[in-house]
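Form P-L/3: holo structure prediction, ligand heme C.
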Amino acid sequence: MSADLDALAAYVGSLDRFPKSPYRAADGALTADARAGKAIFERLRCATCHGPPRFTDSGVGGLHDVGTLTAESGSRLGGPLTGLDTPTLRGIWDTAPYLHDGSAATLRDVLVTRNRDGKHGDVASLSESELTQLERYLLELE
Ligand code: HEC
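OUTPUT (holo model):
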């Protein structure tokens, strides 16, 4: 029994670690595109909610409505659902599909398809190559 508990404790203790991103350069550094994407991430103020090192404001920032809630999103504590706890972006290369309802198959769907009103960052202001750089940064977070 206590061996099971030890194993469970070891497992839970491992949940704050994130898998290495295969998108990084061979030496583990951010690629040039990801470095450019990092600057865009900062410029678009993504870090207000997804700030390093945790890449989430969970526990300190409250709930946010970034335009992804739908009639099917459900309720909260018996009342209306007004926002969501910000998820971390660490290890996100490995965790598709995205958003609380899995409605975004790819990161581009999060940033574009499910962000038509721009409530989840002014991504519409980016050129195609800037958008690719931002995606690349997200894919290299670990
Ligand atoms: C106002 C706070 C806030 C800001 C600013 C913000 N986000 Fe988010 N982000 C959220 C919340 C809340 C969710 C969860 C939405 C959902 O699940 O429907 C989320 C979800 C995500 C996801 C999907 C994560 C997952 O595991 O499903 C990605 C990727 C993401 N954000 C990237 C960004 C980027 C890039 C920017 C800047 C352009 C940004 N966010 C700006 C709060 C924010």
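COMMENT: The beta strands are 75-76, 79-80.
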